[in-house]
C-alpha cells in the first residue's frame, strides 16, 4: 500500500464547526480520513462524525448501517435518507472526562470512479474508562460522481485539539497474473 | 512526494517461539502509529484462540491506566464487553488447536501517540479456523483508552502464552500533511 498525506487540519483555540477538504486530487485510487475528535454537544453515548460528500446534503442520497458494542450489549442500526455519511457515537462529547477524544478511520475506495456509487467503511470508537463504544459502520453516497470535496463535522463544534487528516492511497498497476 | 506510512520496526519470532514483542525508543517524529500483527500461539489450554494484549509505555508497568470497550463475534453470536486494568486487549490469535499454518491478523491504530492528551486506540482483529463451531474463531473491534498524557515511547505485546514461530509485528509511523 502506497499511502500519501494530502491535507491535515488541527482545530485551534475556539473550536471549529467543521473541517473542509476541497479540490481533492483525483490521482489516487482510494482515500482515507483519520479523525481524532471531541465535540461541544453533550450526549454521553458519544457524538457522530459526519462526512458530507461534494457539498451534497440531500437526505435521500445517503444510507448508513452500523454494528455497535457498548461494553454491555451489541446491536445494529440502519438509516436511509441519512443526509450524510457518518459513524455514530465514535467521538467524545462535552461530558467526557478531560483529555478524552474519540477516533474514527474512514476508508473510501475508488473515490474517482464514474461508474460506482461511493461506499465507505468506517471504524471507530471512544472508550471512557467505564463507558464507551466500539463501532464499525458502512455508508453509501448514491452518486457515481467523483469525490472532490469532503466536509467533516460532528454534533456541535469540534473542540481544540481535534485533528482530521486526509490521505490518498495508490494501487499497483501490475496485474500479477 | 514522501510516503505517509513509514516502516519503523519489524520483529519476527524465531524457531523456539517467543514470550512477547517488546518495542523501545519508538521515534516521536510521526503523528500516528499503526501495528500490523500476524501471529499464532502454541497454547493448547485456551480453546481455539488466545487473547493478545498491549501494555503501553512498558517502563511504567504495572499501570492501571488502560481500559477498553470491545465488540466481538464468534461463529454464531456477537458480544460486547468492557474492562479496565493494566493492559488493552487488541484482539485474538489462533491457538495450537486451530487449523495449522493459520495465523490471526490484527491492526492496531494509535492516533496522536505523542500528544499531551489521553490516547484513544482502535484495533481490528480476525482469527480463522476451518470450523463452523461457535467457538472456533473470534473477530473483534476494540476501542481502547490509555489514560496518560505521556507520549508513547515503548510497549509490549503478548498473549500470556508462547507466541508461535514466524509470528510478526510490524510498526509503521503515519505522517500527516
What can you see in these coordinates?
The complex is a heterodimer of chains A (177) and B (177). In chain A, the strands form two sheets. Chain A has an eight-stranded antiparallel sheet, with no helix packed on it. Chain A is mainly β. Chain A is globular and about 50 Å long. Chain A has strands at 2-10, 16-21, 30-37, 47-53, 62-69, 74-80, 85-91, 102-109, 118-127, 132-141, 150-158, 163-170. The model of chain A has no long low-confidence stretch (mean pLDDT 94). Chain B is mainly beta and 177 residues long. Chain B has no helices and twelve strands. In chain B, the strands form two sheets. In chain B, strands 1-12-3-8-9-10-5-6 form an eight-stranded antiparallel sheet, with no helix packed on it. A four-stranded antiparallel sheet of chain B has the order 2-11-4-7, with no helix packed on it. The chains are: A mainly beta (177), B mainly beta (177). At the A-B interface, strand 1, strand 5, strand 8, strand 9 and strand 10 of A face strand 5, strand 6, strand 9 and strand 10 of B.
Keywords:
heterodimer; A: 177 residues; mainly beta; four-stranded antiparallel beta sheet; globular; B: 177 residues; eight-stranded antiparallel beta sheet
Largest sheet of chain A: 8 strands, antiparallel
What is Rg of chain A? 16 Å
For the record, give the distance between the C-alpha atoms at the N and C termini of chain A, rounded to a whole number.
Answer: 19 Å
Report the order of strands and helices of chain A: EEEEEEEEEEEE
Poorly predicted parts of chain A = none
Oligomer: heterodimer
Amino acid at each position: 500500500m502506497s499511502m500519501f498525506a494530502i491535507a491535515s487540519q488541527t482545530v485551534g483555540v475556539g473550536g471549529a464547526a467543521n473541517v473542509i477538504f476541497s479540490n481533492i486530487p483525483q490521482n489516487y485510487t482510494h482515500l482515507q480520513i483519520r479523525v481524532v475528535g471531541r465535540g461541544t454537544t453533550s450526549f454521553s453515548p458519544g457524538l457522530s462524525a459526519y462526512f458530507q460528500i461534494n457539498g451534497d446534503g440531500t437526505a435521500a442520497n445517503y444510507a448508513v448501517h452500523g454494528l455497535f458494542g457498548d461494553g454491555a450489549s451489541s446491536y445494529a442500526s440502519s438509516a436511509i435518507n441519512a443526509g450524510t455519511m457518518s459513524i455514530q457515537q465514535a467521538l467524545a462529547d462535552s461530558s467526557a472526562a478531560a483529555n478524552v477524544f474519540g477516533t474514527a478511520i474512514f476508508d473510501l475506495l475508488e473515490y474517482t470512479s464514474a461508474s460506482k456509487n461511493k461506499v465507505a467503511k468506517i471504524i471507530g470508537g471512544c472508550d471512557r474508562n467505564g463507558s464507551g463504544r466500539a463501532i464499525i459502520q458502512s455508508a453509501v453516497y448514491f452518486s457515481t460522481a467523483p469525490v472532490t470535496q469532503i466536509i467533516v463535522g460532528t454534533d456541535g463544534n469540534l473542540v481544540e485539539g481535534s485533528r482530521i487528516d486526509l490521505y490518498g492511497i495508490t494501487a499497483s498497476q501490475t496485474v500479477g497474473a | 512526494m514522501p510516503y505517509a506510512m513509514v516502516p519503523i520496526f519489524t520483529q519476527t519470532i524465531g524457531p523456539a517461539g517467543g514470550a512477547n514483542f517488546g518495542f523501545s525508543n519508538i521515534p516521536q517524529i510521526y503523528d500516528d502509529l499503526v501495528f500490523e500483527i500476524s501471529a499464532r500461539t502454541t497454547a493448547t489450554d485456551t480453546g481455539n484462540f488466545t487473547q493478545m494484549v498491549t501494555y503501553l509505555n512498558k517502563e511504567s508497568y504495572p499501570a492501571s491506566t488502560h481500559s477498553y470497550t470491545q465488540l466481538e463475534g464468534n461463529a454464531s453470536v456477537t458480544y460486547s464487553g468492557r474492562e479496565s486494568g493494566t493492559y488493552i486487549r487488541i484482539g485474538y490469535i489462533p491457538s495450537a488447536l486451530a487449523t495449522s499454518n493459520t495465523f490471526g491478523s490484527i491492526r492496531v491504530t494509535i492516533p496522536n501517540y505523542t500528544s499531551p492528551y489521553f490516547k484513544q486506540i482502535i484495533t481490528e482483529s480476525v482469527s480463522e479456523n476451518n470450523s463452523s463451531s461457535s467457538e472456533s474463531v473470534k473477530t473483534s473491534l476494540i476501542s481502547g483508552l490509555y489514560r496518560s498524557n505521556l507520549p508513547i515511547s515503548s510497549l509490549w505485546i503478548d498473549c500470556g502464552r508462547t507466541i508461535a514461530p514466524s509470528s510478526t509485528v510490524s510498526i509503521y509511523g503515519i505522517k500527516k500533511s
